[in-house]
């Protein structure tokens, strides 16, 4: 009987070591992942997209479209 009591008391005497030190790694890791996810979503939403006119000008400069097609598409964009 005394041996059983000693086993129970020695387990309790470990104190903070029995709480589970994994929480000291898990909680900061989850906090970091939460912050990184929020930052990534915010950056993706705030990303600037070029205007249709800018895209049209870039395509003309690269030679993807000729002058006639550029002027037609320019009129369409300015009309809308």
Describe the secondary structure blueprint for this structure.
Layout: H1 2-12, H2 23-46, H3 52-62, H4 67-79
Helix pairs in contact: 3-4
Domain SHOCT: 52-78
Protein name: SHOCT domain-containing protein
InterPro entries: SHOCT, VbhA-like
How would you concisely characterize the structure shown here?
By secondary structure, the chain is mainly alpha-helical. Helix content is 74%, strand content 0%.
Description:
- The structure is a single chain.
- It is rod-shaped and about 75 Å long.
- With 80 residues, it is mainly α.
- The protein has helices at 2-12, 23-46, 52-62, 67-79.
- The chain has a domain at 50-80.
- Helices cover 74% and strands 0% of the residues.
- The chain has 4 helices and no strands.
- Helix 3 (52-62) packs antiparallel against helix 4.
- The chain crosses the membrane at residues 15-36.
- This is SHOCT domain-containing protein.
- It holds the Pfam family SHOCT.
- Residues 52-78 form the SHOCT domain.
- InterPro entries: SHOCT, VbhA-like.
Notable traits:
rod-shaped, 80 residues, mainly alpha, single chain, 4 helices
Helix proportion of residues, in percent? over 70%
The outline comes out as: rod-shaped
- What is the CA-atom radius of gyration, in angstroms? 33 Å
Beta-strand content: under 5%
N/C terminus separation: 91 Å
Count of helices?
Answer: 4
Mean pLDDT: 79
The biggest beta sheet reads: none
Helices and strands, in order, run as HHHH
Spans of at least 5 consecutive residues whose pLDDT stays below 50 are none
Helices and strands: which structural class?
Answer: mainly alpha
Number of strands: 0
Protein name: SHOCT domain-containing protein
Transmembrane segments: 15-36
InterPro entries: SHOCT, VbhA-like
Domain SHOCT: 52-78
């Amino acid at each position: 009987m005394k041996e059983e009591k000693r086993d129970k008391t020695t387990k309790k005497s470990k104190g903070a070591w029995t709480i589970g030190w994994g929480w000291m790694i898990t909680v900061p890791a989850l906090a970091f992942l939460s912050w990184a996810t929020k930052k990534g979503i915010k950056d993706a939403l705030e990303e600037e997209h070029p205007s249709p006119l800018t895209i049209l000008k870039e395509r003309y400069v690269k030679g993807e479209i000729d002058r006639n097609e550029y002027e037609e598409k320019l009129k369409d964009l300015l009309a809308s």
